[in-house]
Amino acid sequence: MTDLSVKFAGITSPNPFWLASGPPTNTGGQVMRAFDAGWGGAVWKTIGEPIVNTSSRYGAIDFNGVKVMGFNNIELISDRPSEVNFREIYEVKKRYPKNLVIASLMVESKRESWHQMVRRAEDAGSDALELNFGCPHGMSERGMGAAVGQVPDYTEMITGWVKEVARIPVIVKLTPNVTSVTHIAKAAERGGADAVSLINTINSLMGVDLESFSPRPSVGGKSSHGGYCGPAVKPIALHLLSSVAKNSKLPISGIGGIGYWNDAAEHISLGASTVQVCTAAMHYGFRIVEDMIDGLSQYMDDHGFRTIEDFRGRAVPNVMDWGDLDLNYKIVAKIDSDLCIGCQLCYVACEDGAHQCIEPYRDSAKKNENGFGVHVPRIIEDECVGCNLCALVCPVENCITMKQVDAGETPMSWNDRVRQSSATLSLPFPSGD
Amino acid sequence: MPLRDTAPKLSPEQYEKNFAEIAPAMNQRQAVTEAARCLYCFDAPCTIACPTHIDVPGFIKKISTGNLRGSAREILSANILGHSCGRVCPTEVLCEGACVMHEKGEQPIEIGRLQRYAVDYVLEEKIQLFHPGAPNGRRVACIGSGPASLACAAELAKFGYDVTVFDRNELPGGLNTYGIAAYKSRAADSVREADLVKQLGVKFRQKAEVGRDISFADLERQFDAVFIGVGLGETWALNLPGENLHGVYGAIEFIERTKVQPFHQVEVGRRVACIGAGNTAIDVVTAARRLGAEAVYLIYRRGEPEMPAFAYEYELAKRDGVSFLWQTQPVRVLGQNGAVTALECVRTQLGLPDAKGRRNPAPVPGTEFKLEVDMVVRAVGQKPTTDFLKALKGVEINSDGTVKINDRHQTGHPQFFAGGDCTNGGKEVVDAVAEGMAAAKGLDAWLGSPRAVGR
Predict the structure, then answer these.
(1) Same domain, A209 and A332
(2) Segment 316-375 of chain A within 8 Å of chain B by CB
C-alpha cells in the first residue's frame, strides 16, 4: 500500500495536496470543507492589514472551447481583519488537528510588524508560516509581496526577521517575476528559511475587449496587471522548480498549473515534497482532490513507489544544460497508417512550420466507412530531423511516434565537441538555470 | 372531387410541430463549440467531396473566431445557394461523409448546420456580401430559376453581365422552392435565397414561360447567350390501369402542395401508398404521415438492400411509422365513383444481377393482393422536359432525354448553354449549383470574357 503522507520541513502532512493561499482558503468554512474533501493542508489566504478589493478581479483565457486554460487575478490579500482570520485558524486546527494549516503572511517591511504577526499566527495554532514575497500586484506597489521577493537582500533580511521569533517552519514563497529564481531561493536560505514554495503568479494582462478597448479583467473599463496562473503556467513552474531543486537543499512546495494527480506527480518528480493548488479548485471545487489522491496512489502502486520520497526528485538529474545533451541521439517520425485519419496536419506543419520532411498523400488506397479516401501522408525519413512537431500536432494518440534510429555513433554533446576541438573558438554553453 | 377518405385534420400547432425543421438552427454557443472541433485539415476531404468545393475548414475556422461575415463570404462565393445546401444537402454522403472524424471514431463535424449558421447570419442581418461586376454590355438569359440557373446568373452578374431570369412559376427557386420536404426547407427560405441573386442586379421575370411569353427567337436576338436550367418535368407515369382515378398523384406535384398550401388544406388520404423508394419517395411518405395519414405504405419492386434512398432518409421514414412493402409491384389502381379505393399489387422475385449489378424483379404469379388505400403517389422519377427542349432548334438531346453539352456546358446550339438536372438527369441541389457555375464560366469564355475597363 502506498503511503501518501509527507514530512515537510519538520511537519507531517497526511498527503502532499495543499490548497494554495488564495480565494479558496479565505475562510475557516472553506478550509474545513476542503479538509473534509481530502486536502492534506491549506495555506490560508494571506493575512495582513485588511485591504479593499476591486470589482471585477479575475480574468481567464479560454482555448478552442476549453474554459480557463489560463487565469489571472488582481485580488489582493485577505480583506478580513487579521484577528478574524487567526480566530478561524484556531477553530479549524481544533477540529482538524491532523490537517496542516499554514498561515500566509504579508506585512509592511518593519521588523516589529513581522515579529508581531509571526507570534499571532503561532498563537492561533498555525502549523507553519508562508511568507508572501511574491504577490505581483497591488501589494508590491506598497513595498510588500513581489517588491520583497524580487530583491535578494530584502528576501534574506525579512526571512531573517521572521526566523528571529518563529518556532514553526518558515516557508518563503518565491515569485517567478525575476531574472533568476535561484538567487532569491538562495537568499531565503541564507535568511534561514526552512523551505520554499514556488511559483507565485506571473505578471500578466489578460486581454483587451476590442469594442471598449478595456483591458481585462475590467474595472469600470480600466485594468491593471495581475497574477497569471492555471494550466497554462505549469511549464514555467516546472522549469523554475527544477532550477531551485538543482541548486538548493531546502524542501520545496510546488505550485503552478496543478489540476490533476499527474501534474502533481510531475512537480514531485522535479523535487517538490508537497504541491499547492488554487486555480483548479476555483474552477471545479474542492472535490478535485479525490482523483488527485486516488490517481497518485494508483500511479505509485503501479510503479512500486511506497512513499512520495521514492520518486521525489527523480527527474531532476535529467534536467541538463543544453550543451550536455547528446547530439548523436537520433529519432525519426513514423506514421501508423492504420491509425491515420488523413487530416494531413502533420504534412502542413512540417512543410510550412518545420523542415519539409513529409510528403502529402499520393493515393487514396485507404477508405473511410463511407468510401471516401483517407489521405495518409508519408515521412521522408532521410530528411526527418526528429523535431516532434508532426507528432505534437497529430490529433490521434499514438498515430505518429518518434522512433530511435541507431546512427552508429557514440554519444557526443556540444560541450564534448568543444572540448575535443582545439581549433574551434566556440565556448561551452554557460551553465544556467 | 374528394378522395374516398381523407386523413383527419390536425391542429395548427400539430402541423407546425410535424413540419418543424429536423435540423434546427444552432445557437452561437453550439456553433462555436462545434467549430472548435474542426481539425482544420490540410487539403480537406470535406472540401474535395463538396461538388462546389466550399473551403469548409476555412469557413468553420472563421465561425470559431466570430468572423461570421467572412465565413458566409467563403461559403457563398463558392456556392451562392450555400443557405439551401446547408439545409438540404445529403451531407452524410458528401462533406460530412468524408470528414476525418469518422476515422477518429468521433461524430463528423456538423458542416451543414455550421454552414447554415453562418449564412443565416448574413441573411438575417441583410448584409450584402457581393456586388455586381462593372457592366460589360453583354446580356444573358437564364431559363428557369432553380439552383443551376441562380448559380449561373449570380456568377455572370459578378462578371458584369446583364442577366435576366425567365421562370414560369410564381416564386423563384425552382425545385428548391417547390420540391423539397417542408421539414428541411420552407418555400420562403428558398425565396429569400433568390434575393441574394437579385442583390447582384439579376432581373427576375416570374410567370414568364419561354415559348409562350417570350419566343425562342426573341431570346436568341435579345441576348448574347442563354443558359438552360429547366430541370426535369413531371413524374413518370406508371402506365397502370386506373392511373387516371382521382387520388393518384405525382410525387413532385404532391410535395409542391405541401410547400405552397397551408398544411390543413393539403389533400391527403387516410391511407396512402407511395410507389418507388428513392429520396423523393421518402419525402412523400414522411409528408403524408406528418399531414396525418394513418397508414402509409412504401412499395418497392426490389428489396431493402437495393433501395436507392440514402440510409438516413430511410431512417427518417422508419421513425415516421411508414410501412415498407419490399419486392412488391403495383398491378392496377382500383376505384369507385372515380376515386381511388385500393392498389392491387403482386409480389416479386429478384433475378440474378444484371450487367449493372442490379437484380431485376419478376412478378410471382398468384401472389396478387389488394391494399386498401385512398391515395396513390407515383415516385418513380421525373421525365425530362423533352417537348420543351425539342423546340430549341439546334439543341441536341441524349437518348436518356438529357441535354447534350460539351465540357463548357455548351449545347449543340452554340449560343445556348445548359446545366443542372436537365443535363445530369437529376442530382442534388449542390450538383446543379456546381454545374450552373461551370456553365457561367464556359459561357463567359465563349464570349471572350468581356470585362468593363477603366473601373
Answers:
(1) no
(2) 340-345, 347-348, 360-361, 368-375
